[in-house]
Amino acid sequence: MDFLMSGLAACGACLFTNPLEVVKTRMQLQGELRAPGTYQRHYRNVFHAFITIGKVDGLAALQKGLAPALLYQFLMNGIRLGTYGLVEAGGYLHTTEGTLSPVRSAAAGALAGVMGAYLGSPIYMGMFQALTKIGQKHGLVGLWRGALGGLPRVIVGSSTQLCTFSSTKDLMTQWEIFPPQSWKVALAAAMVSGIAVVLAMTPFDVVSTRLYNQPTDAQGKGLMYRGLLDALLQTARTEGIFGMYKGIGASYFRLGPHTILSLFFWDQLRTVYYTYTK
């Protein structure tokens, strides 16, 4: 049941944040491996990107890829949050004194993130016909092309997100900022987690997006980057350190709300479930 509630919470958040994912991806890909000032900027900022995409491609383009995004969120975050929830319910995140251990929380978040991301990677690559084409062209291994490049991003992001969320909830409960069992505790903790995860994930998010979208040769080998480290170095060398944070505004407007909504929905679904099944 933990996995089902986790998947539903992530899908609920995805309905609201998928347009931001579309905008973020387009902003991260513009001017790829080109020095600043040497290419035309189609999107000046997040809001300009929304308007431009809506005018040029139509409003439906802002929900492009919604079906595979929902499937990916249900699978990836269903496994990730569900695994973390089981570990938390089992008491493994607390010390013998009963206090939350940030180290254990971060480790559990990282491990859960790896499991969810790796199993969900083929869905990230595409859906149904796309999966078939990728499988025929690159073989079964091709369905996980770029997955290793995405794992560091997920490890950092998942550990930061879940550790920050659990730690903030624990502190707010101890300080009695809100009434016991109040939904405001989960909402405030999710907001703090949203800021932390954007700062930690954006450089890996940029590289992960580029690894997935780079052209390949007949053997499925990337033509632009040899791997994660090469992509990081090329981006930093060509576009500067700010190239690593390209699209951070879009990343915040997407990851921030998605983190807040998914963690809040997840926490409330679990609270209702455990209240009525006791």
Count of alpha/pi helices: 9
Q: What is the SS-derived class?
A: mainly alpha
Extract low-pLDDT stretches: 125-129, 140-144
Could you give the distance between the termini? 14 Å
- Based on CA atoms alone, the radius of gyration comes out at 19 Å
Mean pLDDT equals 81
Give the quaternary arrangement of the chains.
single chain
Helix content: over 70%
Count of strand segments: 0
Order of helices and strands: HHHHHHHHH
Main pleated-sheet profile: none
How much of the sequence lies in strands comes to under 5%
Shape: globular
Describe the structure.
- The structure is a single chain.
- The chain is mainly α and about 280 residues long.
- It is built from nine helices and no strands.
- α1 packs antiparallel against α9, α7 packs across α8 and α7 packs across α9.
- The chain is globular.
- It starts with a helix and ends with a helix.
- About 5% of the residues have low confidence.
